[in-house]
């Protein structure tokens, strides 16, 4: 009798635990607007990591819509975050000042084939990747993903960032840009990988980019730099290009003085990586750029500002003669 009573009590305890446990849900944004409004999601609830929810912004499945835009203005989280879930869909998340968004498993920006996904993190906003399922910018075949750190802060505490990592088929295009004093910080000693059609863009000395792990290229891509002084781009580990070409595209910001400017620091160049893996695409009309040195610890560019030639004596005489002729005509 005691055994039966114990079993019955145990059964009621399990039922009680199950009744008090919410089930994980896949929630798709059904109306563009604030993340924290339940009516903006097709499940009628705000996604949260507490129930291991998957948040989809930009979807043609379920009650999702495309294009879709979610505004994050306070503290929010989810187990997984997907932008552009379905084929050719578009999803955008804007983390505004005072807002913070955290994933505890995976973030995929432009997940579906030929999809478009954009994560904007503005000044005063924070995005944190703390999962182990991947942090990918440009994931679906033929997709276009953008991570724009526009004055805000992006932190990855568990994994590196993968840029342009398609799951098969056509290449994915991935852009990670840091500007207007934004911060990108990969705090874990794991590789950040540059796949497919990748672009890393850092603009201004007020931007701060730190990789605790190795930065490794698995394909050729572009490193865009907006220079107003030495850039704060630091790799605690090595730069590894594996015979792929990193095309450097510099642009002077403001009235930049002629001279040498450091645009990346690293602990070392990985074996097999050297100056032959670097190319320069000088599209700056304000002056001339060259690769000054690809050293063991830093990448340095040289800038020569364009000079305006002084007028020649013949030009001055011609101008003076023309001015005199004009004065005589007026008389």
From TrEMBL:
Keyword Signal attributed: yes
Which InterPro entries does the record cross-reference, listed alphabetically?
Ice-binding_C (IPR013424)
Q: Where is the signal peptide?
A: 1-24
Where does this protein come from, organism-wise?
Adhaeretor mobilis
Quote the NCBIfam families the UniProt record gives: PEP_CTERM
> Its domain of life?
Bacteria
Lineage of the species this protein comes from:
Bacteria, Pseudomonadati, Planctomycetota, Planctomycetia, Pirellulales
Keywords, in A-Z order:
Signal
Q: What is this protein called?
A: PEP-CTERM protein-sorting domain-containing protein
